[in-house]
Design a protein that fits this description.
The protein is an alpha+beta fold. The protein has helices at about 60-75, 115-125, 140-150, 155-160, 165-170; strands at about 15-30, 35-45, 50-60, 75-80, 90-95, 95-105, 110, 130-135. The protein contains five helices and eight strands. About 30% of the residues are buried.
Length: about 170
Amino acid sequence: MVNKNNRVKTTSDLDLKDRLVAINRVTKVTKGGRTFTFAAIVVVGDENGIVGWGLGKANEVQAAIAKGVESAKKNLIKVPVHKGTIPHEQEFKFGGSRIILKPASQGTGVKAGGAMRAVLESVGITDVLAKSKGSSNPHNLVKATIAALGEMRSPSTVAQNRGISVEQVFKG
């Protein structure tokens, strides 16, 4: 079930796979010594157009990852995937990170690095050209990528808004 903002309402019937993007060890110095905690950025997706991200923080790595997965399941979005690629070119900026996503022909593969690759593969995109500029902070890259994918419009939506057929969208 998807609402008007491409948000997925129910997660019970989805087969979500999680990918760990980054783990950060945080040290807090106290009177009694150093305290270590971990923050994990996790991306979940069904590799069929649904993706979400989450941040989990805990005293142990496994607990942080588990919290990140639970957080990611709470903010899933639906992304239009057209023949294994994205329907159109998209640019997005989040914080200091700027990303560019371009559709690619069949057989190109996912040409993206690190955090962007995890998001694009979790969505189920098999052919895409992606570029990140500016900050390479995984938090901002994941957020920018998911926000850019959330703004994608499917060919059928564009055709419906224009009052034309899907074939005419690709001709003009």
